[in-house]
């Protein structure tokens, strides 16, 4: 089932996600619905808060980046099959020299900005079967994870912009929260005027 994506301005996007266990109700259905929602909106990752559920869960499928000519052959090969579920994740380490990449977000449509992130991470998480993992990721895979991880911490990519950039996009963000944006996927807007 395709769920509506929560738009910028909704308080759920600012909540730190709660830890869950294997008894969380209808978790398999939620994960399946999140994948359906992500694919329907042409995303490469989505976090539970983006569908209105403030828990520590996000998913990624980086296969659309497998054809990116700016990446090495090795990176493309890794991203081709990079599809994962992250539950109760904690980034243990971020290292390396920060690099910029133009990021966007399904909750903040039509806004793209360069965001600086470190290229290497070590992350501890549980998969959909609650098996614990500690893995190291680099490059684009690390960046996608960092972006989605921020969501379960109540952080948006726009928080990482300079004060000037934030001022320049303030009007766009306000319009998004009011539903004044054209998207081709289902969204839930916190400040949209109700039709009578």
From TrEMBL:
Gene3D superfamilies: Peptide deformylase (3.90.45.10). Its EC number is 3.5.1.88. The lineage of its organism: Bacteria, Pseudomonadati, Bacteroidota, Flavobacteriia, Flavobacteriales. Removes the formyl group from the N-terminal Met of newly synthesized proteins. Requires at least a dipeptide for an efficient rate of reaction. N-terminal L-methionine is a prerequisite for activity but the enzyme has broad specificity at other positions. The keyword Cytoplasm does not apply. It holds the Pfam family Pep_deformylase. This is Peptide deformylase. Keywords: Hydrolase, Iron, Metal-binding, Protein biosynthesis. One of its GO terms (molecular function) is peptide deformylase activity. The active site is at 148. GO terms for biological process: translation. Signal peptide: none annotated. It catalyses: N-terminal N-formyl-L-methionyl-[peptide] + H2O = N-terminal L-methionyl-[peptide] + formate. InterPro entries: Peptide_deformylase (IPR023635), Peptide_deformylase_sf (IPR036821). Belongs to the polypeptide deformylase family. Fe cation binds at residues 105, 147, 151. Binds 1 Fe(2+) ion. The keyword Protein biosynthesis applies. Its cofactor is Fe(2+).
């Amino acid at each position: 089932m395709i769920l509506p994506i929560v738009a910028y301005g909704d308080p759920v996007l600012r909540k730190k996600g709660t830890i869950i266990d294997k008894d969380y109700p209808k978790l398999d259905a939620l994960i399946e619905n999140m994948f359906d929602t992500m694919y329907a909106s042409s995303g490469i990752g989505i976090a539970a808060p983006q569908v209105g559920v403030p828990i520590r869960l996000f998913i990624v499928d980086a296969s659309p980046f497998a054809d990116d000519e700016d990446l090495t052959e090795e990176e493309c090969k890794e991203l081709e099959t990079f599809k994962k579920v992250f539950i109760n994740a904690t980034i243990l380490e971020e290292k390396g020299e920060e690099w910029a990449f133009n990021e966007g977000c399904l909750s903040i449509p039509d806004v793209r900005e360069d965001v600086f992130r470190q290229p290497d991470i070590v992350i501890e998480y549980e998969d959909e079967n609650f098996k614990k993992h500690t893995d190291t990721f680099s490059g684009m895979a690390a960046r996608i994870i960092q972006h989605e991880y921020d969501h379960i911490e109540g952080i948006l990519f726009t928080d990482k912009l300079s004060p000037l950039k934030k001022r320049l996009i303030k009007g766009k963000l306000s319009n998004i929260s009011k539903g004044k944006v054209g998207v081709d996927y289902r969204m839930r807007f916190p400040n949209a005027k109700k039709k009578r």
